[in-house]
Every structure is written in structure tokens, then in C-alpha cells.
Amino acid sequence: xxxxxxxxxxxxxxxxxxxxxxxxxxxxxxxxxxxxxxxxxxxxxxxxxxxxxxxxxxxxxxxxxxxxxxxxxxxxxxxxxxxxxxxxxxxxxxxxxxxxxxxxxxxxxxxxxxxxxxxxxxxxxxxxxxxxxxxxxxxxxxxxxxxxxxxxxxxxxxxxxxxxxxxxxxxxxxxxxxxxxxxxxxxxxxxxxxxxxxxxxxxxxxxxxxxxxxxxxxxxxxxxxxxxxxxxxxxxxxxxxxxxxxxxxxxxxxxxxxxxxxxxxxxxxxxxxxxxxxxxxxxxxxxxxxxxxxxxxxxxxxxx
Amino acid sequence: xxxxxxxxxxxxxxxxxxxxxxxxxxxxxxxxxxxxxxxxxxxxxxxxxxxxxxxxxxxxxxxxxxxxxxxxxxxxxxxxxxxxxxxxxxxxxxxxxxxxxxxxxxxxxxxxxxxxxxxxxxxxxxxxxxxxxxxxxxxxxxxxxxxxxxxxxxxxxxxxxxxxxxxxxxxxxxxxxxxxxxxxxxxxxxxxxxxxxxxxxxxxxxxxxxxxxxxxxxxxxxxxxxxxxxxxxxxxxxxxxxxxxxxxxxxxxxxxxxxxxxxxxxxxxxxxxxxxxxxxxxxxxxxxxxxxxxxxxxxxxxxx
Lengths: 304, 304
Known about the structure:
- Two copies of one chain form a homodimer.
- By secondary structure, chain A is an alpha/beta fold.
- The first copy, chain A, is built from eleven helices and 18 strands.
- The first copy, chain A, is 26% helix and 27% strand.
- Chain A binds chain B through residues 14-18, 40-41, 43-44, 47-48, 64, 66, 70-71, 73-74, 77-78, 81-82, 95, 98-103, 106-107, and chain B through 14-18, 40-41, 43-44, 47-48, 64-66, 70-71, 73-74, 77-78, 81-82, 95, 98-103, 106-107.
């Protein structure tokens, strides 16, 4: 199967610490890299973790808080200094472009590549990106300003052809694409060979959702139901439940409840408040509700 | 003597690397901290190096290239999250304020402290800051856009009173301030005691200059003549002399020539191009001209 992998560049929250960088991660599907969020210092994390800069095609920005977007201008500038030529697509609230326009105009004059902005409406659940392999959907979140998560879904894949059956029925190569898509085969004698005898099931379509920053949003459970991996913010532990509510964040237990109720297969928690110097309290509270849970961490990779 | 110390937060050049952070440093005079330049990641360097955030009063920005100012917005935001109350003064080209206004308006709404901008004219040599202890002067540089260095000079200090002489002549305490300033003392009998018998020489006034990014500017030598410490950019070695000229930077040898000709006491070189994974080539070339030279490095402190 093609790679489908999530690499964490940063999983801290508003205040950067020496333990955690600001929010950013890479979703690798096939040979394309998609970035989610780009806090200050992201370009350095790319270097530190040996990510191939030039393979990053898209950057999805969940919301306009500094810890999710202050790294953009530096990264965009550096890509140009490094001679990038392929376009870079930025998916974000329309305000980002407006706010940063004077900066882009001044610092990014004569960029070596095209920077293409795509405005997204965080309040709507919609497909905002599509290529041969995946779609990306927005997941409306509840935060102090417009904010959305992102759901990466592989498209349904083609069935696997059984080579022996192709030879047995002497099926000409030009018909194989149709058979991969589910067609039956009719022999020259008129016999119909059902597709199920000619092919094996397609690989499952994998799916990943990123939800940060947000109050728990059970209204999205139907959308993310059964996905392979959920990254959910867990800024606080139970002891700061009131603070979580007040700041429109989630506790670890609330993140785990979403994972449980949406019946996802695995959960990663991140966006840790700088007050925790040991996140095991967050992990333990989450695991009480949803055992298949792991802590995010800079440099950690999660393979689907 | 009061502390006068320079701490390097970052001494890399345009491209951040895992070896060097973007340009920033702290000049500590007495209990005040002055920051020079603020590249991306500066706030993290402050944490890493345990700098007391709240003691930073002023930020001096040499010029508007990203590696010297992209860290401002994140640092300003974080200071507010941490509840800073004392004002922060930013000395920079007027354009900075204009370029970043929409960002400040959006991300820095309801800041917990006052952010005060002071426009500076990089093309003029002038005193732009003054307090009880120091003055800061601009040093016009030659770069691809308006750029200036900064010269920190302690003000002349008062002479040291010789306690025994105060007692011997029974000089009343209220007269001591004048004596520290150089007054003679007239005894009740009318005898004039010259100040030189009552006091020892004042401590010397220390001085530090920061010059980055720039072509060599010998026209500033008269201004920085004899200073205690010069930080000068040395982006390139001799082998890239043409590239240095083309990009309006200096080589290590050129930096050392400035130090030599201006008869400064010590030289630090920094702003290293990312192409050098070992800066000893830069140090060796500089030392051929000016032996009292050291390499800058993240976390290194230089005490005057």
C-alpha cells in the first residue's frame, strides 16, 4: 500500500516551551506531503526532522491563532530562498490573506514560486481539496474564533486483479481497468464471469482527522465515525476542566469521549498546555475512556 | 561594576538551520535588558537560555529582513499571554509598523501592556535611546534595504569617593554628590582640597557595537573607534567574497579589518551563512587580521 503517515512537528499550545513546538504536522499520502497548521518555528522542525520541503504541496490552517500560523511567513520566505518552483497552496480563512497581505507584499516580493490561497469557511462541513488519492473535508469546530478540523480520506481504491484468472480466461489487457473497477467479464462464448471470481477486495480506504483547537464537538461524530486515526486536542486534564471550557479547549477525557463515541480506531492527543511537564496525567485520563490512545510528540510518526 | 553583558540568542543568517537560530541578542546593562533583532524562534531562545522576559524593555531592529524580525509577532503575543504589564519599546524603520499593522491589530488585540513604536532613520547616525546609564546610537550600514547597526555606550560615570578623606576632612554627606562629580572641597578654614585628593578615577565607560547586515562600512570607524566590543557580521569566508559583495554582506576578513582599523578591543563575528558547517574557517581568516576575535554562538555570553 501507498504510505499514509502522520508526522508531528509540534504539539504544544499557545506558549512555546522547550518541550513542545507550536502546532504543525505533516500528512504524507503517497508521495505528497500536506501540512496542517504552521506555528512559529515550523520551518526549523522541518529541517530537524528531515522532511522534504519541496514535497509539501498544501498547507491547511485550522484557525488564526498565532500558535497555528505564525510560522507561515518564515517558511514561505525560506522556500523561496531555497529556489522552490512548484506552487504552494494555502487553505485558510480569508482573513489570513488580508491580515498578512502587507507582509507578503513586502517580504515575499519576487518569490520563486506561486503562492495560491484558497479561502475556506470553517463553519461549513465541505470538501475543500481533492486529488487522485484523497479528499480533505473541513470539520467545523467550536473555538474563540472560526476554526475547523480537517478530515483526510482516501478515495475508494480499485479491486486487485487475480493474475491467474486473467490468464485462464485470456482476458485482454485493455479490459483490465474496467475489471479493477468491478466489471464482470463475458467470454467469447457468452459466459458471464462475475467480478468476484476475477478480483480480490480493494485495499481499505484509510482516513485521518485533525481536531484542534476546540470544545468537544459531538456533532461531528457522524462524519468521523469509524476513521482509522483521530488527532484531538487535549489541552487540559480534568483538574482544569473549567479552564478548558472557558478557553474553548478540550480535556483529555473529552477528547477520548469523542474517540469512543465516534468509534474511531486510534486516538492521538496533543496541543498540551505548557503547565504539564509530564503529559502522562493526560494520557491516563484519556485511556480510562478510550484505551487505544497515544500522546503526540515532536518527531513521532503514526502510520495508517 | 554594574553588569554589561551581551548574550547571543541567534547568529545564523537568512536560512535557519539546526546549528544556528535567526539573528537576535540581548544586551544587559545594569538590570535592563535590551534586545537587538528578533528573528523567528527568538522567544524560544529566550526560554531555552532562561532570559528574564519581563526585564526586556527595548527591542532594536536593524532592518526589515525576515531573519531579523519574524520573531516579533510571536514574542509580543506571548509576552501578553504571560501577563506582562510594563511597556515594550520597539525601535525600527517606520515601515515595520505599517507592514505589521494588520497583524498587530488582529493578533495583539487587548495586549496586557503597551507596545510603543519608535521610528528610526537607518541612514542617519543619531542617538535614538537614552537612560540613566547608556545611550544607543544608530550606525548607518550598507545593505540591500535601509539598515543600521547600534552602538551602546555607557555614560561617563562618577568618580569614586575615598572614604578616609571624607572622614579626615569631616566633609558633610550632602557635599559628596558634588565631589563625585569632580568638585573640589573648601575647608571651613578656606583651604581648597583638590578633587584628585578626595576621589579615585571613575570606572571606565564601556561600549558595544552591533553591525549586521552590511558591506564593510569604514566610514563608521571614527564613531566606533576604540570601543570595547564589536559584533560584526561575517556571513562569508574569502572564497565567497564575490557573493558577499553581491548580497551586501561582509567576509570574516572584512569584519576583522573594520575591527583593526577602528582599533576596537575585541571582535565577535556572527551571521554565518548556512553553507558553513564549521565556522573555524571564518575565525581563522578573521584572526589573521585581528587576533582578538571570537565566534558568536547561541547561548554564548560576552562580558565587558
